[in-house]
Amino acid sequence: MSPVICCDLDGVIWRGDEGITGAAEGLAALRNAGLRVVFLTNNSGRTIGEYTGRLAALGIAAGPDDVASSAQAAAAVLEHGLPVGARVLACAGAGVIEAVEAAGFTVVDEAPADAVVVGWHRTFDFERLRRAADAVRAGARYVATNLDPTYPGSHGLLPGAGAIAAAVSTASGRLPEVAGKPEPPMVALVRTRFGDRGVMVGDRPSTDGALADALGWPFALVLSGVAGSPGEEGVPDPPPPFVAADLGALAPALVEAFAVRQ
Predict the structure, then answer these.
(1) Residues known to be catalytic
(2) Which of 37, 96, 157, 254 qualifies as a FRET site for 129, CA 20 to 30 Å off?
(3) Do 70-178 and 4-69+181-187+204-258 have the same topology in CATH?
């Protein structure tokens, strides 16, 4: 059986609101070769339905079972130790709210809270920082969806979830448990959802590449996101087994290496 092709979204399929040239064609080539393609993102800002809708708008078919996120990994972390119905303060976007509620917890806006989940969102401000830090100082369990310092937008890099978590950590005096790539909760989520054989396609060696290492999978690096941005991460030395400008350019090498020959 051929491995699953596990693709990051931001920096691989799109940057901000713009699809990356060649991504849809590359995915079509992979699927036409009989390879299963799934999607894995550290960005917890959107719901799974929003992600499948964005993919559909680019001509990429995907169902909820084909997409996994750091929000889901964070909810899985909370399931170990918190009772159903526990109060969770979401200093995060809609994806975290969806995942936390699906796990049976009650989402709240301020203390008292049994846990705080911090994730990427555009509405972070002083008041949200105050509420999250107050709850963490009061003893709430503290989980970050991921610690990515930046996020690839349409016209450059934006502050990532790691920047928001750093603010909460500074204000509260505590460090979070981390759920997303490349940490063990995401490793467990990937194995549960997508199996033990795969290839990780991503744009950030420090997370996507590290996750591939943790899974024991090959890493395929595209230079259409973080690794292709000035001042950010470059190609590691030694380089991963697959490197290309974008997913369209990468797909032929993956088909050659992993497609099942009839």
Answers:
(1) 8, 10
(2) 157
(3) yes
Report strand pairing: 18-19 vs 14-15. antiparallel
- Residue 149, CB-side half-sphere exposure with 13 Å CA sphere: 5
Q: Quickly list H helices, the chain.
A: 23-32, 48-57, 70-79, 94-102, 126-137, 161-172, 184-194, 210-215, 247-258
Asked if residue 14 lies in contact with residue 41, where contact means CB atoms within 8 angstroms, the answer is no
Task: Note the pLDDT of residue 262.
Answer: 38
Question: 23 Cβ partners below 8 Å, 6+ apart?
Answer: 12, 13, 14, 58, 60, 224, 246, 247, 248
User: Is the pLDDT confidence value at 260 over 80?
Assistant: no
CATH architecture group of domain 70-178: 3-Layer(aba) Sandwich (3.40)
Contact by Cβ (8 Å): 70, 186: yes
Tokens of 256: 């050659």
Q: How far apart are CA 87 and CA 116, in angstroms?
A: 9
Residue whose entry in the numeric block shows the structure tokens 């079509």: 28
Q: What single-letter amino acid sits at 113?
A: A
Task: Output the pTM of the full model.
Answer: 0.94
C-alpha–C-alpha distance, residues 68 and 42, integer Å: 9
Please state which CATH class domain 4-69+181-187+204-258 belongs to: alpha beta
User: How far, in Å, CA of 74 to CA of 76, rounded?
Assistant: 5
Amino acid at 118: V
Q: Judge contact between 111 and 84, C-beta under 8 A.
A: no
CA–CA separation, 119 vs 146, rounded Å? 7
User: Domain boundaries in the chain?
Assistant: 4-69+181-187+204-258, 70-178
